[in-house]
Amino acid sequence: MSLLVVGSLGLDTVSTPFDKVEDALGGSATYISLSASYFSAPINLVGIVGSDFPNKYINLMEAHNINLEGLQIIEGGKTFRWSGKYHYDLNVRDTLFTELNVFENFNPVIPERFRKSKFVCLGNIDPVLQMKVLDQMTDSHFTVCDTMNYWIERKKDDLIKLLKKVNVLIINDSEARLLAQEPNLVKSAKAIRNMGPEILIIKKGEHGALLFTHDIVFSAPAYPMEMIYDPTGAGDSFAGGFTGYLHRTQDVSAENLKCAVIYGSAMASFCVEKFSTKGLENLSYLRIQDRFREFMNLSRFNEKE
Amino acid sequence: MSLLVVGSLGLDTVSTPFDKVEDALGGSATYISLSASYFSAPINLVGIVGSDFPNKYINLMEAHNINLEGLQIIEGGKTFRWSGKYHYDLNVRDTLFTELNVFENFNPVIPERFRKSKFVCLGNIDPVLQMKVLDQMTDSHFTVCDTMNYWIERKKDDLIKLLKKVNVLIINDSEARLLAQEPNLVKSAKAIRNMGPEILIIKKGEHGALLFTHDIVFSAPAYPMEMIYDPTGAGDSFAGGFTGYLHRTQDVSAENLKCAVIYGSAMASFCVEKFSTKGLENLSYLRIQDRFREFMNLSRFNEKE
User: Fold this and answer.
1) In B, residues 220-259, which contact A (CB 8 Å cutoff)?
2) In what helix (H) or strand (E) does residue A124 lie, and over which residues does it extend?
């Protein structure tokens, strides 16, 4: 039983009102894998980098039991780079530059051993590539898929085709409204579930997340944070914690999906407490469970008899 | 033991993308009292209207066990009128006109019998008037106070003075940020609690509500609604349900405050399902408890052992 993660790996240059980092470890597959690594091992990663990708990052991922057999390292190529600047309220960010580099010609090849993975987490990349991944899978599998407004606006037809093949779609609230062309979130959820994914998660940033299945709606609280150092990777950390927990428990019942949403939220809260992937590098399952219980205390209420 | 409600009574002309009503029953004291009336009786109302205030509305309130001994009816005067228009997404509204009329000279006089009320709910009116109410109270009491950006911007000093005398402040997220001059909600909450109220509730519209006390943070989910007919009065209905439940249970412990927040949220959800006060006119305590349980199902999760 294994968990396959496909997405981007990159070098991020990020500034927030508090600090700035250059060429820090980034990319959707990176955050997803690191986050999921606390729940199950090994994580099978498929992605692409250039030969400039620092060895220390390779070592970091291997130390987290991430299997890099599917990582293409292009000799002489340059790794994907992204730079962003967050403003004072951290909800607004400007992209300063995006250099696709080796990622431009990424063709995800799933190693033979990975094709039987029972859980697949598709990081936010071109839906055409996400479909190529699924086409290579040989056994039945449970697929969690992330996407973003960029693909909804530019590759909607490919995305719609893909959605028929995924079990869970994770998007944020503005993307849900955009995809469904509907301002009401509950109606949007219904419309998107009709496009294919039986399970939909709508992330609402500082307002938590909503889980929709055919028979339940679940509202997960947001962890109350006084300080967010760097929002980069929060959504990927969510997807990694969510899928990692499902893989660990091998249980996709509605009750367990709720817990997976909380574990995803917990991982996102750890992620934004530090710059880049730092918040995901030195955790323990015990600390993650403590935060899970904090989420429980945050949202639980009981009426006296 | 009784619950005193002071605020505005008005005639609202409201249009939404779905319908329009003219001179419908409105005002903060109206929504608060109707909402609270399902939890305890009688509700003691203090407010002002003109002689044009329709008898059917007087009858409606009396049928809900609202004691109108403190309602000033100004012979020949005109009732406060407000008109608003909601846009497609219902989060944006334009005020078309506001006619203060008799409300311009409102001087809240608390009838002798009402001055011993143990619970006071101050609807969203000028903080100078809210203070006048508290100055007339003779016994110790638990005060819940609503306000809005208008008063934060124009009467901040008076509001700050008032805040030292109230137990609970209820505001929305943008008002909390404005009052605390701080973009982070958790830090805002801390700053506002330092201004006086030991309990703070921050309403977040379609994202639920947060409760802050000296030792807990509680996150209440929003009821997932496919259709909101008229958002007018949602905040007042929340305040009425919240205070009404506290008055009913005579218990202001942290655990019970959480339940009161859920009952407040339930009443707000009933309010917006119909135009004007219609959503609050024909409820039963059983139906309200059913919705309370729906909120529980919406937010509860349990990890398997």
Assistant:
1) 220-222, 224-228, 249, 251, 255-256, 258-259
2) none
